[in-house]
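Protein Record: Sequence and Backbone Structure Tokens
======================================================
Tokens: labelled as protein backbone structure tokens, with as many entries as the chain has residues.
Question of interest: how does this chain fold, as expressed in backbone structure tokens?

___
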Amino acid sequence: MPNSKGLFVGLLTLDLIYLADFAPRNNQKIVATDYTVAAGGPATNAAVTFSHLGNQANILGVLGSHPMTQLIQGDLANYKVAIADLEPSTSAAPPVSSIIVTQATGERAVVSINAVKTQASNASIPPDILQNVDIVLIDGHQMAVGCAIAQMAKAKNIPVVIDGGSWKTGFEQVLPFVDYAVCSANFYPPNCHTKQEVFAYLSRFDIPHIAITHGEKPIEYLSCTQIGTIDVPSIQVVDTLGAGDIFHGAFCNNILQSSFSDALAQAAKIAADSCQFFGTRRWMQSNL
């Protein structure tokens, strides 16, 4: 079993997840058929996955001391994810996401506030945060901290992965230090309108390995001038929530042991498996 140490930089939320026949329309009340609560955020779910696969995971983000943070702490403790709190003294409520998953299709509707109101400064970074770290993932929700961590990791020859779920202002300052850009089909840097333009944009930063995921469609990648695609397993979808985050956590595990294309393929299998279960945690219970 692997036993690597990963640092995951970004968003910590509390996710309230409902399974329902459909999302409500205006002025409509519906009754959910299932419900779960979990810590959320791209970097957080990736950290949980990385830990589940036999590694040590540390999430660097803003948590604070609001009573609701106990739910986040409890969930992450259950999955053996350590928390490095950038703002431990804040009493502000953590970001909360409300998610409705449509039972028939697995599609989800999300309302969230992300980390816009909880941005931390570089001064909050613990001095020894990269000690014995083997890989870093940055989701862009704590951009100033992420940029500083990326530079520090580069200086220590620690590989840096970005979760490019969507373009966020400031990513251009992180990209020069990135080894693996793993992006979604919704990731469009400035003046980019096609996937070819996205690949060209990222390549200008000398990022050696770039991939773009397309949900259930094949993954496109560019690895040291080698272009390729990877098929995604076909499954009966129950819930797509967090699949991209799980993909990134699995990728961080696999890239420490495999080639870029193999790591992408293995991560796709794990993410597809997770989509066969409701919520972001139950897939792990089936693989104990």
